Amino acid sequence: MLGLAKRVGARFLLTSTSEVYGDPLQHPQKETYWGNVNPIGERSCYDEGKRTAETLAMDFHRGAGVEVRIARIFNTYGPRMCLDDGRVVSNFVAQAIRKQPMTVYGDGQQTRSFQYVSDLVDGLVALMEGEHIGPFNLGNPGEFSMLELSEVVKETIDPTATIEFKPNTADDPHMRKPDISKAKELLNWEPKISLREGLPLMVGDFRKRILNEDEGKDA
Fold it and tell me: pTM for this one?
């Protein structure tokens, strides 16, 4: 894709990830932080794959003059996500709607920051229309532990929903929160939609699809 961008003179958007920071020793994470990544762990094919993609993008920019833009995307949620994609918000929402226990890995104290999809789209558009390469953190600095997230899901869907604890996954980052001061300053961007505002919009979509799924099984 970088070769194609070079040939046709296109501007190239790389949607990288907050996972380039690994299990961070800096909190919140700034774009200048190089990260703390296990290169041979269970998650490393994703983490290191994205880090390598950033390297290639910058090599093509420096060596071949390709116009690149790099966004480091933090956890994002919204309607039309896959019901069973394994992401924590999708998991909790689908499980609560189906009256299943919400699965929490480890002690549930690990934190994530959740941005609504329309905020991310606005950030990507601002990045592509601007003159700054990046990388830019695109995320919502509102930070929630997994237990706090489960409480918000309960409030939104079903106050009687329960939690099931399971052993934690390997190399699971303990903290994740973006420092978005660079995006604020250079892209004039910051997220507008809080988790409590965005989650009901996702829940409405998931409810419809899960209901249709159940009706299909009964037919």
Answer: 0.94
Residue 168 class from Cβ within 10 Å (0-12 exposed, 13-18 middle, 19+ buried)?
middle
CA-nearest of 111, 31, 117 to 78 is 117
Looking only at the bridges linking them, the beta strands covering 102-105 and 143-145 are: unpaired
Strand 143-145 and strand 111-113: pairing? antiparallel
Sign of CA dihedral 79, 155, 170, 165: negative
Interval 137-193: pLDDT, tens: 999 999 999 999 999 999 999 999 999 999 988 888 999 999 999 999 999 999 999
Catalytic positions are 46
Neighbours of 195 (CB within 10 A): 20
CA distance 55 to 52: 5
CA 201, CA 184: separation in Å to the nearest integer?
25
Q: Which residue has the tokens 């329960």?
A: 162
